[in-house]
Amino acid sequence: VLRPHDERVVVAFGQRDGIRVGHAVLAINGAEVNGRFTADGKDVLEFLGNPANYPVSIRFGRHRLSSNEKLMLASMFHSLFAIGSQLSPEVGSSGIEMLETDTFKLHCFQTLTGIKFVVLADPRQAGIDSLLRKIYEIYSDFALKNPFYSLEMPIRCELFDQNLKLALEVAEKAGPFGPGS
Amino acid sequence: QGREGGRLSSSGELFVLTYGALVAQLCKDYEKDEDVNTCLDRMGYGIGVRLIDDFLARSAVKKCRSYSETADMIAQVAFKMYLGVTPTVSCSSAAGNEFSLILDKNPLVDFVEELPAERASLCYCNLLCGVIRGALEMVHLPAEVTFLQDRLKGDAVTEIGITFLRKAEDRNGLVTTT
Hints:
Chain A has 4 helices and 8 strands. By secondary structure, chain A is an alpha+beta fold.
């Protein structure tokens, strides 16, 4: 059962063959969809509802988060982080450092200036602590020292992206035992 | 960085010369010394709010637990890291929130002996005050930072005064008392 959600067409009910609730329609007959519309401008639900268009092949999957969605989720996490440090039975708790689930681990590092760096990784991935510190260095070099970057805004600095990518590659290659293994 | 055998390295010199050029230009732009000082402080502030993260990322220091530790950190770690000098720290109030940093050596004034007569109130190194103020604000320690004494003005020493103000909210929006 499909229904529209935000700017996408999303599975509301009926999981099978690896298609799960929450998955979005990514492509129809090989052509990627554009939000709620097919590649050639037709409304997806209308198109799929018309038997004249069958047989049809649909690709489902998790959609990539838009910048706005990322901002929303990040601010939710920021609030949870603050709540977490206030609820903590320990005085002066520094907040959520790690959130563990079956499928991933979320690591959070908060600087003394209040900036939070959040990394989502495989639960078995090691070396995230040093990765977080490395990202802090990359941020202070290529974002903060760029005179055209305004504080608190999304970072659109080429050098930042490049160096971040390198750091992630190093951390990934290291595997479950950390860099140097 | 900057000093080799007493002389500045080429990039250290370039930095000092650039700073001098900046002050000279501001003097052309503004008639009043106070305006130049304000401008330098504002520029310094803009640097400080960014430099603090570089300092924290590179020095990996732990959170300071008192104003006194903070003042020591500024003098012994930060000044050393960025200017290659270590001012002496002393606490100048019973309340424990006023400190002074005495600069014995100051690379920024290597090529300046004294201020010209028409610029007697100029705080040549006021950028530094802004940097310290901006940096402290980002770690939730608002402070007033000014030059209390200045060798360029004929005083015996160059002294920066840091007065820590009421503690601001910390990172998680909690106000804590010292």
